Structure formats: C-alpha cells, structure tokens
From TrEMBL:
This is Ribosomal RNA large subunit methyltransferase H. SUPFAM superfamilies: alpha/beta knot. The gene is rlmH. Belongs to the RNA methyltransferase RlmH family. Homodimer. InterPro entries: Alpha/beta_knot_MTases (IPR029028), RlmH-like (IPR003742), tRNA_m1G_MTases_N (IPR029026).
Length: 156
C-alpha cells in the first residue's frame, strides 16, 4: 500500500526535512516486506492565499484515485502506536492500494474535506505546527512498520 502525505505549504531545507526523509527511508526499508510503502510527501501551495476552501480543492486534486483518505486532526481519534499500526495493516489487508494522509495548513483542514475523509487521527488535543506534524507522522509510520515486523524499535 503506497502512502502519500498530502500537506499544505512548502517545507524548506532544514532539520524537519532531514528527519522526515530519514524516517520515510527507514519506513520504506522496513515496510517493503510488509506490503507497506513507499511513502512520499505531496505538497500543495495556495499561492493566492484564498483560504481553506482553496487549499481543500488543491488537496483533493493531489489524492491518488481510490485512496483511503485519512486526515490528521486534533479532533480525530487518539490512538496508541500499535493501534495505528493495526489500522494500516487493516487497510493493506483489505486490498487498498493507496493511503492519503492529509495535514492541513495554518487554519486547518476545510470542514468539507474533513467530512469526506474515511478516518481521522489525532496526535492529542494540543494543536501542533503542521511542519512538526509531518515529522511526527513520518516517525509513526516507521514505528508502525517496526511494530508489524516485530522489530525492537518500539518499546513500552
Ligand atoms: C496549525 S494546525 C491547524 C490547526 C487549526 N486551528 C485547526 O482547527 O485544525 C495545522 C495542521 O496540523 C495538523 N495537526 C495539528 N495538531 C494536530 C494534532 N494534535 N493531531 C493531529 N494533527 C494535528 C492538522 O492536520 C492541522 O490541520
């Protein structure tokens, strides 16, 4: 199952980008034998600054056809890392070819796009900067792959 992290805004070179690249490379290596990955980041930019509705339209265009659509949203479901891993495995086992994980911009994800999504994951009730959410999501994907492969990375 291919994974697209669809995010609003361009991430400049810097520590966040390095971390994302590192976790997604590790995810690709670990996930290959599990039928998970590769994962890529698809950035959309609302150059006219037309607001959440315009961002939602750009995000919709970036979604692979037939993808499971999952938003990252503080109002979503708070999950443990093993539960997130099981959720990924469930979509894979259901034969889904693509998963799109959507991260909003400074104003969040337009309500219309939130209601269209199949699922929504929360990293807790606090609001995080979207650039950090990209890093956290990339790490959770790698962590999920290690959980499913029985590796020692995830310890509780
Ligand atoms: C700065 S936040 C926008 C917050 C905005 N006030 C809202 O209502 O969604 C940018 C994006 O980061 C992601 N995000 C921020 N905090 C999150 C959390 N606790 N859990 C999951 N995603 C989060 C969401 O995708 C959000 O659209």
């Amino acid at each position: 199952m291919r994974i697209s992290i669809c995010a609003v805004g361009r991430l400049r070179a810097g520590p966040e980008k390095l971390l994302i690249d590192d976790y997604l490379t590790r995810f690709e290596r670990t996930g290959r034998a599990l039928g998970l990955g590769p994962a890529r980041v698809v950035e959309v930019e609302d150059k006219k600054n037309a607001g959440m509705g315009a961002e939602a339209d750009l995000l919709r265009k970036a979604l692979p056809k037939g993808a499971v659509v999952c938003t990252l949203d503080e109002r979503g479901k708070v999950m443990s890392s093993p539960d997130f891993a099981d959720r990924l495995a469930g979509w894979r086992d259901a034969g889904r070819q693509d998963l799109a994980l959507i991260i909003g911009g400074a104003d969040g994800i337009d309500p219309s796009l939130r209601t269209e999504a199949d699922f929504s994951v929360s990293f807790g009730a606090m609001v995080w900067p979207h650039m950090l959410v990209r890093v956290m999501l990339a790490e959770q994907l790698y962590r999920a792959a290690t959980i499913l492969s029985g590796g020692p990375y995830h310890r509780v």
